[in-house]
């Protein structure tokens, strides 16, 4: 749209009196119509006011964008660090629990192995009968297991079961704590994932500076376009004021007198040459054809600015939502961090209980099972050796008895021989020797007997005592079957 100072056309004055629309001269009515249209176009000033408000708001939002972007980035880094720390604590608790659980399972395996060995030994004792000849007549059959105190095994078993139950209780408490910790971390991760992610990266920076630049450009172009409308309005006012009856016609058409946009009071127009007035009218007509286009351009730019501002608002809303969500995440982290102390204390209590109670109790239980198994194996071996010893004693007793009987026979033979010799001497020389020559001349020979040395007994005939002793010795060393002794020897040799 040309300005009032635009150079006049070089065409003839006749051509300049004709309009571009129908090649006819511009009448007063045409000028009034152009004036009315130009005045109506100035209503776009409200769009400029709105454009100014938009630019001002966008400038404030641009500042807020910088603050929120920096704040959100800082909080995200802080959140990542805090989450890493919380997960490190959780992994540490898992490591302690895994180590304890691994050793606990190994100790349980060792405990079961030791107990199985003890049970195997007890089964041998349960199945090993006491030989009937070793027991008083009329007593029920006994086995080696009847001679041990089973309460020791039962008490230790109950003690170990109670220890394992205590461990399971503490581990259950730890598992509850771990579940609560995991739930808190899952909720925290879910909250972090649900934080609105403002699409701003190093490769895709914030769109606000570019949007603000476009807003400023639209505002400047709109202002420039409006200025051309103002200039056209002023040209219309000037043309009317230099046309006879123009001011009155304009007043009648619009209800007020035409006045330049930059004038506070109406100033009478100074006469101008007709040629100059016609040139001015030509420019006015040419510019009038662009008024609607300029008005549309201003409206379009206003609409574009409103759209751009909505984009700015959307981006800022995203940043605000992200900021609000991140603040909620920080509060959640604070709660989880406060709860972590309890989770750590539970883990420490579990580990301390393991070191001070469960582990030493299980180790002592394994050692005790092994000691009992070894003792009862020695008991079984001792019984086998007892059977061998009884057989050996019986054999030695029988040998000694045979030797005693042989010695007794030799003593009896010597005694008889001595009697015969003395009788023969008495018959041959007795009549010649006086009795008082040796008091022992007529004494019978001393008789010797081989017999068991009696135990201390009070009263009773010596012969009866001797017979009782003989019977007692025979009873105290029973005669075992050969197969019994052979089995006992086999067990002894197997365990040597």
Secondary structure topology:
Blueprint: H1 13-16, H2 28-41, H3 45-127, H4 150-193, H5 208-241, H6 246-254, H7 274-429, H8 462-476, H9 482-494
Helix pairs in contact: 2-5, 2-6, 2-7, 3-4, 3-5, 3-7, 4-7, 5-7, 7-9
Main location: cytoplasm
Keywords: Autophagy, Coiled coil, Cytoplasm, Membrane
Coiled coil: 390-424
* Average predicted confidence as pLDDT: 84
- Poorly predicted ranges: 2-23
Tell the overall outline. Answer: rod-shaped
Integer-rounded radius of gyration: 66 Å
Q: What structural category do the secondary elements indicate?
A: mainly alpha
Question: What's the number of structural domains?
Answer: 2
The strand count comes to 0
Helix % is over 70%
Strand content: under 5%
The secondary-structure element order is HHHHHHHHH
The biggest sheet, with number of strands, parallel, antiparallel or mixed sense and barrel status, is:
none
Distance between the termini: 125 Å
Number of helices: 9
Membrane topology: Peripheral membrane protein
Protein name: Autophagy-related protein 17
Keywords: Autophagy, Coiled coil, Cytoplasm, Membrane
Family: Belongs to the ATG17 family.
Structure overview:
The protein is rod-shaped. It has helices at 13-16, 28-41, 45-127, 150-193, 208-241, 246-254, 274-429, 462-476, 482-494. Helices cover 75% and strands 0% of the residues. It has 496 residues and is an all-alpha fold. α3 runs parallel beside α7. Residues 2-23 have low confidence and may be disordered. The chain is built from nine helices and no strands. It has two domains: 13-374; 376-430 and 462-494.
